[in-house]
Amino acid sequence: MDVPRAGALLLAAALLVTGCAPEPGGAPPPSPEPAGTTSAPAAPPAPAPSAPAPPSAPAPPSGPATTAPGSAPTADPDPGPGAGPDVGPDPDVDLDDPASPGVVVNKQRPLDPEDWAPAALVDVEGELLRPEAASAVRGMLAAARADGVPIRIVSGYRSHAEQSATYAGWVAQKGREAADTVSARPGHSEHQTGLAVDVGDGSGCDLRVCFDATPTAAWVAEHGPAHGFVVRYPWGEHGTTGYWYEPWHLRYLGPERAQELVDSGAATLEEFSGLPPAPDYGPAAAG
Ligand SMILES: [Zn+2]
Q1: How many CB atoms lie within 10 A of CB 88?
Q2: 3-state secondary structure of 249
Q3: What is the pLDDT of residue 71?
């Protein structure tokens, strides 16, 4: 790990802007202050392994510089003409219908309707997922364990009602602005699609930045696409995705489309789908 990245990880740990924030009244929420006011990295709070993890939290309104809209990914994929899938809208993929496995949900693209719920959900080791994602995650868990990698599901589907209660609890405790730094607004969480899953290894780094350094994180980043899952909020892409790095938050796209995303060199699902960056909620909601 290079020095700037290590420093940024410490900064992220200090901010504790994890996408899957604890319930209000659980672990302390991250400070909403800009990073510059933090003189030293704070020790992360003790993990709350029994607490269910809400879906991804938004990035703070101020802090480390965000990726400029339209900027290129850090890696140069250089696919060459005709060398792989194009980045951009695919007429065969419905990005808007929550029932579509290709749906893109972010701070600019709430589920429509916002209280949408999957027609079917399947239990996988105590968490619910859409059937196609459940089947795929079972295969992924088995493959990881066969490789000797410890892995467990930390969080799966969360309903609109559950997310509403979680978000309202944060608003009541900290106010809307601070709530937005730790909890997704209802209707804006990818977990509500039933296609997102948070994984961990049970080592104490679940839903924490230190998960990045675990063999489990490396395994899912490498092998997840073969099972249809991609790391939805990659390192350094919060200016596009609206979320800080979450190596544990995986999104089911299906093996074919997940591999196409990887092969395309696109850094994010937004870029791959030809959608604009979604660093924050819309202007009307920003004030
Ligand atoms: Zn998540």
Answers
A1: 12
A2: strand
A3: 42
- Say how many Å lie between the first and final Cα of the chain, rounded: 38
Give pTM, 2 decimals. 0.73
152 φ, ψ to 5°? -145, 160
Mean pLDDT across the chain: 78
Count of beta carbons in the 10 Å neighbourhood of residue 41: 14
Task: State which amino acid sits at residue 265.
Answer: G
From ligand 1's centre to the CA of 251, what distance in Å?
9
CA 231 – ligand 1 centroid, Å = 10
Q: Which of 115, 113, 237, 211 is nearest to 154 (CA)?
A: 211
Tokens 């900027």 found at: 71
The Cβ of residue 219 has, within 10 Å, a number of other Cβ atoms equal to 20
Percent helix, strand, coil in the chain (nearest 5)? Answer: 35, 10, 55
Q: Residues 185, 270, 123, CA angle at the centre, nearest 5°?
A: 60
How close is the Cα of 284 to the center of ligand 1, in Å?
A: 25
Measure 233 CA to ligand 1 centroid, in angstroms: 9
Q: Name the nearest CA neighbour of 62 among 93, 24, 34.
A: 34
Ligand 1 geometric centre to CA of 239 (Å) = 18
* pLDDT tens track for 6-59: 555 544 444 444 445 545 544 433 333 333 333 333 333 333 333 333 444 443
Residue type, 201: D
pLDDT (tens digit per residue) in 63-92: 333 334 444 444 444 444 444 456 888 888
Distances (CA, A) of 255 to 53, 216, 263, 270, 283: 26, 19, 12, 18, 35
pLDDT of 282 strictly over 90: no
**φ, ψ dihedrals at 251, nearest 5°:** -115, 130
Over pLDDT 90: what percentage of the chain? 61
